[in-house]
């Protein structure tokens, strides 16, 4: 029997569910949800239950610093000491800086709401480089940028369960966010109306009172038509709009172009459904808005997010019970995102101005942008072409950019051509395999952290010593800083801490709260306040919600949302399907967990969802494999057909990030099975955020001949027999196996 349960927080994904780590003596027995957590109320997913324990002692875990021996990508590495690795890395980094300057160094990390994002940003800035790549251009970037521009809070947080009407757009919380899914169901059981906008009849759409299925990429026309109905029928919250919104006349004029009839023509949704949705959302209060990553990675993503955010403002559904909340702070607490923007941790403006993408996408890469991150596809091109200037060294931490960035072939070519590539990781991936040095990174149960999660200040506790010579992201950044300093490479002293605990203490030092206090229960609830805008205003230049953001207007953009025809409508007829990418699965997170048996039992192949008519037209049945091609992609990829009427006959839908760790490297099957190899990273970019249009592309689908592609036979991963490598058609080498012993 377990002797104790240590309260902590799961960070296997961004949601941060409260967890209990059950220990028997020093042995971790299992991990479960913490029912006492006000944020997650015991909700816990299959990743949370399995990932941390299986990653900890996974047979493929990287435990020591590794140095490449032989050609890049061959997969031959030799163990080296930390001292030797740091010495070599700093020496080679010095050569890059001597030849090209410090801006020739780039970094890549998942995002800035993990401490590894802070560690990466301040390390690069210490070196004098502004080029910090995050994955948020593919998920969250457009929505967050819209929030910064308009002042509308993007999420309801814990208020969701008190909503009387939930509008969900491009979101499938049953696949991606277990807490939002739980809260949606709670609200629904209490009688809330549910309006779902999604071209796919997802699980949440199946629960909807009103389901609108627009053609992919046309959502903005739908939002403007709903706006038009709310304004023309005077269904808006007149007091809130009068006191707290500016730009309503301009918005009204723009929305007038999108009558329900016009929007019906564009979107394929009937005018009656549009009107019904508008009246329901406007008159059933309090209401909240869930926007998912279906909105991001579109060529009109920010305007789409703005158009839906405006619905919240018009109906006064902001920072009141049951509405979208302004995120609450713990007085004095330094949350991760604050380090990205705090002048004390930034470089001089002239250095920041060198960021790649800053001129073309000021709201993504400029000084006031949400993430202050560079434009990823432009950095990849800078590695390949030397323009606008050469990028010759890369440090990645905890990311697998070969598998998660569209245009995989370009990413691989760019990484292969670097002078220096250092990757911090706990496992070998198609990305780390191209590295010169791999630095061993801790996994979740070996790390401690403090952060705000929903309505809590939350703690993650280290419950076991780091395995081998693994170090945390912060410890690796500190070690690199010291090695770079010894070579005179540190230009700005922006990473002042000497341990991860020092950083945590710095985050908490003005709160009067000690880390141990947060660890006691795993969380400290944050005081519940509403309508704080009445005291503080909104974070816009006018302090009001800007329905036509002044920042956009001042930068020369149209300040109002407008419809733009998706690029798939303008390609050759042979590309007769719309490819929707990015469907989530609870057992996976982006490219992660393909080497975990518990995950592969749930999801063992990259699925292509086709309507029965679309499948029959191409001679495909469930379980067949199909090639998928796009007009601008550099290759076709092979996906496994699932026949379902959850998508319409003109749509092909899939996920992202597939690779098979057990297949021979360097790509481990990704060039054959990952949809990112079939879609380009541009040139259709959102004009404001620079997000590439990778969510909706034109495509064609044809049956794959298994003689050409010896492939997984059935759903049992152990029947993998032969898969061609990227470079030849020889039988695949089984690099490692996934053991039942991994499964808890
Ligand atoms: S949803 Fe799952 S993986 Fe994400 S934080 Fe919660 S338990 Fe962990």
Indicate the low-confidence ranges by residue numbers: 710-744
Whole-Å distance between the termini? Answer: 16 Å
**Strands, count:** 25
Note the quaternary state here.
Answer: single chain
Strand order of the largest sheet: 5-4-15-14-13-6-7
Instruction: Name the shape in a single word.
Output: globular
Percent range for β-strand residues: 15-25%
- Please state the average pLDDT score: 92
Alpha-beta content class = alpha/beta
> What's the total helix number?
27
Share in helix: 25-40%
Bound molecules: iron/sulfur cluster
What do these coordinates show?
The protein is α/β, with parallel strands linked by helices. Helix content is 31%, strand content 15%. It contains 27 helices and 25 strands. Helix 3 packs parallel to helix 20 (473-486). Mean pLDDT is 92; it is low at 710-744. Iron/sulfur cluster is lined by residues 10, 12-13, 15-17, 44-45, 47-48, 178.
Which features characterize this protein?
single chain, 744 residues, alpha/beta, 7-stranded mixed β-sheet, globular, binds iron/sulfur cluster
Summarize the structure.
With 744 residues, the protein is an alpha/beta fold. The protein is built from 27 helices and 25 strands.
Q: How do the helices and strands line up, and which of them pair or pack?
A:
Blueprint lengths: L3 E6 L8 E7 L2 E7 L12 H11 L9 E3 L8 E3 L2 H19 L4 E4 L6 H13 L4 E2 L7 H10 L14 E5 L3 H4 L1 H12 L3 E5 L5 H4 L3 E3 L6 H14 L5 H7 E2 L1 H9 L3 H8 L3 H13 L3 E5 L9 H14 L21 H6 L7 H4 L9 H4 L10 H10 L7 E5 L3 H4 L3 H9 L3 E6 L11 E4 L8 E5 L2 E5 L12 H14 L13 H9 L6 H7 L1 E3 L7 H4 L8 E2 L3 H5 L22 E4 L16 H6 L4 E4 L1 H6 L7 E5 L7 E7 L7 E4 L15 H4 L22 E8 L41
Parallel strand pairs: 6-7, 6-13, 8-9, 8-12, 9-10, 11-19, 13-14, 14-15, 20-24, 21-23
Antiparallel strand pairs: 1-2, 2-3, 4-5, 4-15, 16-17, 17-18, 20-25, 21-24, 22-23, 22-25
Helix pairs in contact: 2-20, 3-20, 4-13, 8-10, 8-11, 8-12, 8-13, 11-12, 17-19
Bound molecules: iron/sulfur cluster.
